[in-house]
Amino acid sequence: MRSLIIVLAASLACSWSQAQAGAEIFRDADLALGQRLIKEHRCAECHVRKVGGDGSALYKPMGRVNTAGLLRGMVEQCNTELNLGLFPEEVTAVAAVLNKEHYRFK
């Protein structure tokens, strides 16, 4: 039980520090890979189903996602919920594309 608590605490600390991270987390991201993955996994189609229109209403820079780390976390949430099987560097690549095109965190 104690080891489970330690693992959970470490996970929360990592998530919190990542949420506070600036756009430097995208510095070495492969934007071409991110673009390819967005198309391959049909992200825009899912966003259209969720919010209608062209799906871009899902991107609300002043909403829940207000740091680069939280943006990466939302992409990871999609990865987990939809069982996409993306590796961490792929999640970062997708988030970097979204940052460049929609959020523009510095």
Describe the protein:
- The chain has 106 residues and is mainly alpha-helical.
- The chain has one domain (2-103).
- The chain is 64% helix and 0% strand.
- The chain has 5 helices and no strands.
- The protein has helices spanning 2-20, 31-40, 43-51, 68-81, 88-103.
- Helix 2 packs across helix 5.
- Residues 10-17 have low confidence and may be disordered.
In short:
The protein is mostly helical and 106 residues long. It has helices at residues 2-20, 31-40, 43-51, 68-81, 88-103.
Which features would summarize this protein structure in a list?
mainly alpha, globular, 106 residues, 0% strand
Helix content: 55-70%
The assigned structural class equals: mainly alpha
Q: Shape from CA axes?
A: globular
Poorly predicted runs are 10-17
Radius of gyration: 14 Å
Task: Itemize the secondary structure elements and their pairings.
Layout: H1 2-20, H2 31-40, H3 43-51, H4 68-81, H5 88-103
Helix pairs in contact: 1-4, 2-5, 4-5
